[in-house]
Amino acid sequence: MTAAESDPDPARLEPPWWTPRKSGARRSLSRETIVAAAVRILRAEGVDGVSMRRVAAELGTGPASLYAHVANKDELLELLFDEVVGEVPLPEPDPARWREQITRLWTDGHEALSRNGDIARVILGRVPMGPNAMRMSEFTLTLLRGAGIPDQAAAWAIDVVGMYVSASAIENAVTVDLAREGRDPEQYYGMVCRFFASLPPEEFPATTSLGDALGRGSREERFAFGLDVILRGLAALVPADRADRPGERP
Amino acid sequence: MTAAESDPDPARLEPPWWTPRKSGARRSLSRETIVAAAVRILRAEGVDGVSMRRVAAELGTGPASLYAHVANKDELLELLFDEVVGEVPLPEPDPARWREQITRLWTDGHEALSRNGDIARVILGRVPMGPNAMRMSEFTLTLLRGAGIPDQAAAWAIDVVGMYVSASAIENAVTVDLAREGRDPEQYYGMVCRFFASLPPEEFPATTSLGDALGRGSREERFAFGLDVILRGLAALVPADRADRPGERP
DNA sequence: TTCGCCAGTAGAACAGTGTTCGTTAACGAA
DNA sequence: TTCGTTAACGAACACTGTTCTACTGGCGAA
């Protein structure tokens, strides 16, 4: 069960431009069953596999039937994204452990996205406003402010972290995709590294000499590094007189 | 003129899986004219506008003709991406001013991408390996190492910065898109802010009280903030005994 | 100068896409 | 029971990337 389903009054949380559930749904189809079918396809075939026809076929009907429950494919993808974000568990915020909690939360988010094909593609360029995404933002904002990061910086930081997590999840999805197609991702990255190493050293001294380092590390390690860099940078924005007392409100 | 065109021997720099220029091109079409036509469409209509048929029509021919010069649409998009990256001027690296130079370089890159529709979409999930992208990576690597950042961190940092810049450029492109469609982006973001403010304060205290800060700032300001956070985090990785002497090699 | 080759150019077609239109059929309310 | 609303759906439209096939037209060799 997702957070959205367990919410007592989810309607209040939805952006007003998501088409409201039409009253008196009568038969087999519903927004929930459509999203559930789409998630199954998403995990198996990625975003490109999620076509209106494919989802309809999964439900034993035609594509036109879906349009009674979902405005268009864009809206379906947004619903799909929020469904995936709903997989991330939210603990109780504890400002004293803000960096640890934020790291955990967004690492979980990164994994949830990575588990579900390249779903992260659909959110780049829009503001995530589904109920589950909103709860995640709220949680992060609370922790950042509690840590003493100025309001404006905290507000912008959400965007920065979100972009990094989404972009990295897309990168991961491609690796998973290669594996699904039977091609070894290691082999692909090996090819890339060999290309770097083969560049003319006169023009690319740094790239050729670093060759190995560029491809080293698991996806998890590389993601953790970037997230740590960002949080380090954010921590540097805490005013000196707050740095040692996280959690206090001024 | 792009960097690629002015390069004395660009062939050596191209990844070996880009299809080689077929020898003895005879008539009007060429890889260059195709990419140029695609760039025009890209600027006017975004990546979605760049279809093989549309590009062919721009050149007064049919889609099949393009396949003699370009392996497939993916390759055309990669060529397109590198063409855009070629718009970024590379200065002489000066390790003493590494943060300033990196900020400048990637801000220029961000602007070049933002000027050209949502071209950044095509690079997410792959490693940019066109000649212009490679030169940009080399430049950044040189500066980061010169600044005293450990090799492994420098190698991974390229990815982090690249992901952030691409994701942010996509965000910008959507704003530009809205403007092109005649819809006011300000109005869209105003709508988003109003939605945030309208959430139930009991469940979303931070989001509702921050409402304004979440939407404040120009695209440039917001991008600059994130880049600064990342560079701040990277600077924190410089070993203490190197922090005051950028540019020296150990 | 002539001939033959073949790279480059396309027209047509295939299988797929998102979306809309018009019709059918089933349910809730009266 | 009847009526009106509305979910469901088949067919169609205008697209997409890509491939097959035929057909040029210019160059190198004779």
TrEMBL record, chains A, B:
Single annotated GO MF: DNA-binding transcription factor activity
InterPro entries hit by this protein: Homeodomain-like_sf, HTH-type_TetR-like_transc_reg, HTH_TetR, Repressor_TetR_C, Tet_transcr_reg_TetR, Tet_transcr_reg_TetR-rel_C_sf
Domain HTH tetR-type: 28-88
SUPFAM superfamilies linked: Homeodomain-like, Tetracyclin repressor-like, C-terminal domain
Region (Disordered): 1-24
Ranges of the DNA-binding region feature: 51-70
A biological process from GO: response to antibiotic
Pfam family for this entry, one: TetR_N
Residues making up the signal peptide according to the UniProt record: none
Sorted UniProt keywords: DNA-binding, Repressor, Transcription, Transcription regulation
Name of this chain's protein: Regulatory TetR family protein
